[in-house]
What we know:
mainly alpha, 6 helices, homodimer, DNA-binding
Amino acid sequence: MKKITIGEAARKSGVKVPTIRYYEGIGLLREPSRSEGNQRSYEQSDLHRLTFIRHARELGFEVEAIRTLLSLQDNPLQPCASADAIAKARLVEVEQRIRSLLALKAELEMMVEGCGHGRVDQCRVIEVLADHAQCTHHGH
Amino acid sequence: MKKITIGEAARKSGVKVPTIRYYEGIGLLREPSRSEGNQRSYEQSDLHRLTFIRHARELGFEVEAIRTLLSLQDNPLQPCASADAIAKARLVEVEQRIRSLLALKAELEMMVEGCGHGRVDQCRVIEVLADHAQCTHHGH
DNA sequence: CGTACATCCTCTAGCGGCTAGAGGTGCAAG
DNA sequence: CTTGCACCTCTAGCCGCTAGAGGATGTACG
Lengths: 140, 140
């Protein structure tokens, strides 16, 4: 087993060095062993874990959710209902966010298209912001 | 002109009381006059400004962008190219975010559908997180 | 007029998820 | 043996608020 420095771990996992230390601080990652000179020394399993975390973060899971997912991964004989529930909750969030962003997109497009590139007092961008009643979408 | 308390301003604008004070602190909102007992006293124009800010925040504009938009609104004879540029930039951001969220949605759906509701060691949710190569989408 | 109670005030600290920087130590190559 | 990068710890900062302490003010009712 060759020792893996934090820099190597960062390169291989795609998680930045200070972020790795941060994950250790909040207990997502175990405290690795240290070299004689007090430098962190990782193993292959830590790289897997880091990659897992990075992937989950990219999917927008919060750290608390990841904490649960990791503990599930550590206990593979448990039923996976929790993992399923977490993923489903995240899916609902994402779907809501997409709907909301699509509404925003429509509104921004109206603003941008309506802008006659003249003076501010005729600008639809400012106008729409100033007068909510002009919104096509009233969900917000 | 009747005096408007911060609580009323909050109710009418939909911006919470501490947030109004926060906006004053960062200079988005002027310092209002005060009552004899040192309580903030707003005018109608402050309500318009607060509504403008709230609306812009709901559209996801950052505070710095709102600062610019507000200063444009304060100078209605200026050309509105900046407002247009800010809105366009925000539109691009929103479009990118939507694309990225659609990819995430697809990935989450795969995970959730693949989950056989058995044990963690057969769970697709955990599996996909652990092994990035299983992703349908490789943009991240 | 007193008192109860909501609302207001200022101030500081905390949230999430990092990121930046200061000031110092370890280590490998030339 | 020195150069220079990577590492260490620690603290503070980012955004856009939000929460809470501890106290002052304003208003409605008896």
